């Protein structure tokens, strides 16, 4: 899809992938009540960097919105007892820092019936390759609870004219459906 937008539509695109990893700071190696809120806040700061760090691109693509952290906060199985209400408050200030930009952006929420299988496949591969993940792998019920929270709280995106939920599959054709929707949303 990116290639098509660049070539056919002659658009300059950037796909920033800044990340905060636990092993970047010794305070975050293991989740703790003292620093977990700060780690999660810094995760959101890196997502926010994806929004504002660009040169002259026409389109900035994010694989994740800073609002994802808000959805995680609403997921019961994600409450591991590390983050206090005040820590959540400090994180929310960062989550909504660029609300004005997000309200004027094209937002595509991708839904895939195979999301659980995709997730457990990625986590299993990471485990087999001895990659350390930030948290223990969720079971299916916990994961689907998170998916439910993402769906239930989509009203956080206020500009419904530039927001679209799109069902996709694990195939090489779904991108065409997404591309057509993006084209229509860019016209608005």
From TrEMBL:
It comes from the Eukaryota. This is Uncharacterized protein. It comes from Rhizophagus irregularis (strain DAOM 197198w) (Glomus intraradices).
């Amino acid at each position: 899809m990116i290639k098509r937008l660049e070539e056919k539509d002659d658009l300059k695109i950037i796909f920033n992938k800044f990340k905060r990893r636990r092993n970047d700071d010794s305070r975050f190696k293991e989740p703790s009540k003292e620093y977990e809120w700060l780690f999660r806040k810094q995760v959101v700061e890196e997502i926010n960097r994806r929004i504002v760090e660009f040169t002259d691109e026409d389109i900035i693509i994010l694989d994740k919105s800073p609002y994802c952290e808000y959805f995680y906060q609403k997921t019961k199985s994600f409450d591991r007892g590390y983050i206090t209400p005040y820590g959540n408050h400090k994180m929310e200030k960062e989550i909504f820092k660029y609300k004005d930009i997000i309200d004027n952006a094209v937002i595509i929420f991708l839904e895939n019936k195979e999301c659980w299988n995709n997730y457990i496949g990625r986590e299993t591969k990471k485990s087999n390759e001895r990659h350390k993940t930030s948290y223990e792998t969720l079971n299916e019920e916990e994961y689907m609870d998170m998916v439910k929270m993402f769906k239930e709280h989509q009203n956080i995106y206020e500009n419904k004219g530039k927001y679209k939920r799109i069902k996709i599959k694990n195939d090489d054709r779904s991108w065409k459906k997404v591309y057509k929707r993006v084209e229509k949303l860019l016209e608005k």
